[in-house]
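Entry:
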Amino acid sequence: MADLKSFADQLVNLTVKEVNELADILKEEYGIEPAAAAVAVAGPGGGGEGEEAEEQTEFTVVLKAAGSQKLKVVKAVKELTGLGLKEAKEIVDGAPKEIKEGVAKDEAESLKSQLEEAGAEVELK
């Protein structure tokens, strides 16, 4: 039993990079889908009380769905990201997709509100 306990401790303490590497190994060598592996590995780590003391400083803006005003959302994505029309349309059509990564909280909130005004469904991670 001690080996399983230490194995569980190792899983819970994996970094995001290590979880991604583990997911790749599980998929390539054992045929286990990485999404299920990432959820299984990352799931137990969310319950720590002390982990919430550090405030998140970088956010990823994720377009979850375009909503009913797809054209407005494509235009908003184009303006906010500086991408071309074709690239912006591909992002909107492929939702859920990340719009911007590693942005400050204020910028993330601004992007979210602008996209929601256009009719999109947006999430900050």
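The CA atoms of residues 76 and 115 lie 6 Å apart.
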